[in-house]
Amino acid sequence: MGIRTRRARTHSRTHFVGFGIAGVLGFIALLCVTLALSLGGVVSTWLEDLPDYTSADAYLLAEPTRVYDADGNEIASYYLQNRRSVTLDEISDYVIKGLIDTEDKRFYEHNGVDPQGVLRAVVGQITGSGDAGGGSTITQQLVRNTVLSDEQFEQSLKRKVREAYIAIQLEKEYTKEQIINMYLNTIYYGNGAYGIEAASITYFNKHASELTLSEAAVLVGLPNAPSLYDPFTKPDSCVSRRNLVLSRMLEAGDISQEEYDAACAEPLVLNPGELTDSIGTYPYFTDYVRNLLLQDFSSETIMQGGLKVYTTIEPARQQAAEQAVSERVASSGDEQLRGALVSVDNSNGHIVAMVGGQNYGNDTEAGQSSVNLATNPRQPGSSFKAITLCAAMLEGMSPTVRINCNSPIQITPTWAPSNINNDQLGTITLADATAYSSNTGYAQVAQTIGNDTIIETAHMLGIDSQISPVAALTLGTQEVTPLEMAEVYSVFANGGVHRDAIAITRIEDRNGNVVYEHQDSSEQIVDSAIIEDLTGVLEGVVTKGSATYVRNNATFNQPVAGKTGTTENYGDLWFCGYTPQLTTVVWCGHQDNNSTIRYQGANGTTATLPLPIWTAYMNAVLEGVAREEFPTSDHNATYKDNSSWTFVGTNQASNEEDWDEEEEEYEEDAGYDESSETTAPTTPVVPTTPDTPSTTPDPNPGNGNTNTGGDSGTGGNSGSGGDSGTGGETGGGGETGEGGSGVSPEPPA
User: Fold this and answer.
1) Which phi and psi (to 5°) does residue 538 adopt?
2) DSSP sequence for 391-453
3) Ramachandran bin of 45, using left for φ above 0, alpha for ψ from -120 to 50, beta for the remaining angles
4) Residue 697 carries which DSSP code?
5) Among 70, 136, 178, 266, which residue carries the largest CB count within 10 Å?
6) What residues are paired with 574 via a beta bridge?
7) Do residue 463 and residue 521 come from a single domain?
8) Which residue among 241, 265, 289 closes a domain?
9) pLDDT category, 383, cuts 50, 70, 90?
10) Is 501 within 8 Å of 487 (Cβ atoms)?
11) What is the model's pLDDT at position 666?
């Protein structure tokens, strides 16, 4: 399930519901058999041990679905807390008429089962008409959601016979008005709202009796597929569904042409009201779990079916993640700043921590949001370059190939990308171009191997989001989610083995029967030797490149690899990093996606936000964990001769000989791009040196009190690093400034 299974590259389905043409035809045959046998023979056996249908209203006391963490602690329950029961006279006539006209226009003529409706559904299935409607009556739907809620996923004729039989009997026990009333008080309308009154408040902040024709039509159309027609997230689909309901009402003669025209012309105007949410502990994660369940279960079952859902979240790691994100975000001084984090156990793909924001709720004026930023697509910036690197290596490009990384470089007649600050990096290896995040170098690589190759690799590694082959693709201009990036980087951590990033391990029904259990579907998708080399390159990002903050501040004893990312105008800040045990992705930005991130008065950088968050979290959860090493391969990767590659801005002679990266170690001033192809702020850039100075003189040593700190400032015993470090892309500023070390501090993020 989203419960994610890789096979389809979108979330798989367990397909518990839906019968299709064969199911409808079988039901027709069943009815014929039932009538012919007069409920005798095998059919009579099916009707044994029926639940008590004489008190259908008792089933309104639904059993909640309970959600548990990895330790077995209950962290959420989904139930009908948001249901507000009302009587028929407290419901707009438009709702009642629209419901009958749309769902069961012969409601007052049949005795619980409508043969004409079944035939109409069959014709719709055969012809592909979306307007034919389903074969189930309102009464049958009520039975399915209440009396037979335990059986609603059974794909059998037996269940359909029981449903039809009880529907007939139910109509002997209750009036049509009572059945309508029970239906309207139990049906799910999306966004946690059960019943027409709760739905009216959720979407329009008014009582069900006060709904206009247009509003009533919106709500009537929702139960068919609440997520598909969600007024908040899919307004166009919602309006189309509303207009279909209105056309049914016009056809039935319940509204005039004038009323129809006026209602169809009305814009969708929402006025959300507040209802108590039952999302529970870790709200962004448990909201994500609920959305996964909605892919395979009906909303009615989720909210009243008594499921037990066992998840992967680990309380200690989740709490460490929330603390790391919230503390850093709060210290920024940027009231609009939000942070997200996803941490995945590399050994099994379990999502052990997920932070989707800092203030869950629906009161936007109070700064609340229910948007899960861990699963919300954003531009990844240079963190996407790791995918390009993998694609290039799969094509046979060695990390030792040399590329002219000066700036700018004309890639196409209309595109000439630049490095940050227009830094002239010289002709360096692809490995160093990664560590120093050269835009110009990676633009040439992408142009050489082709965007289609990069896109194919991205999807193979775990990106489900749609990616377009735009010129600046390799610079991270196409939106992806932190969860997707965690799945991608976990492939690197696992030596080329892919596992789905999963949140749910097992689901039981109210009787304890296992209805879903995750099966590990690990797959070697990239040669282990290539990944070993790739991880070596990404380790360079931490040891000498844009993520040296981790090198200098990590207290755990594990190897680290990863890549930073910053988008245009400092709108998104990323760090995707991994150890042998965990892959953790951190994103920081504004939810509106339209403004520059600030940190303590300066532009936010990866060195001031995602890198400290990542490090604080990993320090907490890996403290005392015995050191492990990244997977190694039993063979060497095979690459094409470096001289076989041609880059638009690189002299062919640069790769006519093999180069020893150790002998040709790049020690000039380096620029470190984290922007897209646009020009970034002009903070001076200096290279980094190891924690312990090597015997090779540093071309940019610390020079005492004449330089400012921050991630790119140079210190010395009297350097002005620390809290006075300057900000900007390369600055780092604030508490991340370096000083007093006598060596050049971290490069920019």
Assistant:
1) -70, -25
2) HHHHTT--TT-EEE--S----BTTB----GGG----EEEHHHHHHTT-HHHHHHHHHHH-HHH
3) alpha
4) P
5) 136
6) 565, 587
7) yes
8) 265
9) very high
10) yes
11) 33
The answer to whether 696 and 462 are in contact (CB under 8 A) is: no
Name the residue range of residue 579's domain: 381-655
pLDDT of residue 169: 85
194 inside domain: yes
46-59: average pLDDT: 60
627 and 743 co-located in one domain: no
Domain check: are 594 and 691 in the same one?
no
Structure confidence by residue, pLDDT tens digits, 546-558: 999 999 999 999 9
pLDDT > 80? residue 590: yes
- The CA distance from 446 to 474, in Å, is 6
- 246-281: buried (b, 16+ CB within 10 Å) or exposed (e) per residue? bbbbbeeebbeeebbeebbebeeeeebeebebbbbe
The residue type at 253: G
The CA distance from 565 to 419, in Å, is 13
Q: Residue 705 is encoded by which pair of tokens?
A: 């009190």
**pLDDT reading at 676 higher than 50:** no
Is 446 a residue whose pLDDT tops 80?
yes
Tokens 């370059």 correspond to 385
13 falls within a domain: no
Task: Please give the average per-residue pLDDT across 377-392, as a whole number.
Answer: 97
State the helix-helix crossing angle for 157-173 and 176-186, rounded to 10 degrees: 120
Q: Report the C-alpha gap between 228 and 748 in whole angstroms.
A: 43
- CA–CA separation, 748 and 730 (whole Å): 4
Which pLDDT value is given to residue 232? Answer: 93
Nearest-angstrom CA–CA distance, 266 and 270: 12
Return d(Cα 196, Cα 174) in angstroms, integer: 20
Cβ–Cβ under 8 Å, residues 373 and 356: yes
pLDDT at res. 718: 31
d(CA 277, CA 370): 11
Return the beta strands (E) in 567-622 as ranges.
572-578, 582-590, 598-599, 602-603
Quick: pLDDT tens for 195-223: 898 899 999 999 999 999 999 999 999 98
Provide the 8-state DSSP code for 64: P
102-132 confidence digits (pLDDT tens): 999 889 998 888 877 556 544 554 445 444 4
CATH of the domain at 502: 3.40.710.10
Query: From CA 326, how far away is CA 358, in angstroms rounded?
Result: 7
Residues 6+ apart with CB under 8 A from 416: 408, 409, 410
Tell me the range of 128-132, 169-173, 364-368, 679-683 where mean pLDDT is highest: 169-173
